[in-house]
Amino acid sequence: MPHLLADCLSEILKYLEDDRINLYSCLLVNRLWCEFSVRILWKSIWNYNNKTYNTLISCLPNESKEILYENGIVISTSTSKPPMFNYAAFCKILSINQINYQVGLLLKNQQPIIISSRNLNKDQQPIISSKNLNKNVQILVQEILKLYMNQITFLKELSFLQLTNITFYRYLGAKDCLKNLTKLYCRSDINTEFFCQLSKICNNIQYLTIDFKKTIISNGLTELISGQQKLKCLDIILSYGSSKTSKDLTDIISLLTKLPDTLNKLILDGGIHFIPLSFITKFTNLQELLLLFYSNKTFEDFKILQYVTFSKLQILKIQYASPNYELLINFLEINGSNLKEFYIGDIIGESNDSLNLAIGKYCSNLIKLSTGFKNDELETLKVVFVGCQNLESIKIWVGDLFLDEKKALEMIMKYSPKNVYELKLNYLDCTKSKLLPEELESFFINWENRISQKSISLMIINNGIDANEVNVESMKIIEKYIELGVIRKFKVTGFYDETF
Fold first, then answer.
1. What is the dihedral of CA 118, 119, 125, 126, to 10 degrees?
2. Would you say 430 and 461 are in contact if contact means Cβ atoms under 8 Å apart?
3. How many Cα atoms occupy the beta-carbon half-sphere of 259 within 13 Å?
4. Mean pLDDT, all residues of the chain
5. What Gene3D superfamilies does this protein map onto (predicted)?
6. Taking the chain, what is the end-to-end CA distance rounded to the nearest angstrom?
7. Is the pLDDT of residue 480 over 60?
8. Is 399 left (phi over 0), alpha (psi -120 to 50) or beta?
């Protein structure tokens, strides 16, 4: 029975993983609650603050503390008592960058006490130079990582995006710590040794994000990728400056062709850069495909993709630039019936009426849709609603060339499927709302009387203007219907901060 109680408590507290306030309260219930709560609080490095790092430093072995002392690094702690738990062992999500950043803040804030004053005159104050600060940060980060590698039995996620000379992957215990790694976030130009060592240790990576800061790729990266036979998700980010041609990206393209066909999620965040897309034809098991490019040139290869069958594809997101709509329509004719979510981004340059009609015709199982309808495309919106009866969430552009809010809300009220409960209004550029308070209230009154009687989640997405700007009278109406239970959630946000 005690074991059953402990197991149940452990499962229940997992639901509070993102609720640190209540988790802190759980620490005070009793020893059992404390043990489970502290494991969750220390699970991710992203939850740590200055106090946490003070506690972590108090957990360092005497050998590490001696190294700190010899270098004049003395960190004040709130207590001299030994730690209650082996906190470092609870960490499952580790970011080298975050540790480096937080340690830098910690040492910078404690400058008056982190330098030995043995060589100072009576009236002198200890001052730390930028060079010495960086040196001390590296020393302390090094000792913390030694602790982690030695104490973590298995690490789940590792983020390593910052170039550093700290070879943590060679520390005592690193092999056991890293061998079950399932998520890796890294840069392509990290030293070859890091990737070579990881390729020998890690063969179970399932989620891999690679940030290509340069076209230069460490040799070990190819070796690491080739050894992953369970890879499920790949996120490629091209974040270096100038635009590159496919010739400049030969090594990257070659690298992508070595990926196993176990992939079920592929994200290509290319920005202004050009990547041939033909290699995607290999991954017929894809369930999610996200293409984020600013240039239409990248989509030249969609001529090949348009006739490929992805029988498991459920989520397709094309943001900013997009393929020629004729190619995309051919793609939807083959793959649209499997889609649960479809997002199409930059639709300003040309009429997308034909594409929206194709969505209504071929994508009957959609649950979430993001697209745009021009002012003269009300009938097309109706076609989409009739053809996509499983819709629960819709995001549409409003203002300027697109539907004004009043027409959009009227169409959604009259024709949207009964399961729709989430509405996102995406305002074009600096367009401001022209919806009158009484028009907004009329929509909520009608929604309250809908047959489905589902409360609505409403998001306003403003692009280029104050994301917190909402008409005072409209806000009063929204608050009124939140209290009445007609509105489940309401949020005003910017384009890049969109979450629900």
1. -80
2. no
3. 30
4. 82
5. Ribonuclease Inhibitor
6. 40
7. yes
8. left
Tokens of 13: 């507290």
Calpha distance 275→249 (Å, rounded): 8
Nearest one of 342, 292, 293 to 313, comparing CA atoms: 342
Pairing of strands 288-293, 422-427: unpaired
Q: Are 192 and 167 in contact (CB under 8 A)?
A: no
Least confident window among 9-18, 227-236, 482-491: 9-18
List of residues 6+ apart from 206 with CB closer than 8 A: 182, 183, 230, 231, 232, 233
319 confidence band (pLDDT: 50, 70, 90): confident
Q: Which two tokens stand for residue 311?
A: 């029988």
Q: Are 31 and 37 in contact (CB under 8 A)?
A: no
| Range from 55-69, 238-252, 380-394 that averages highest in pLDDT | 380-394
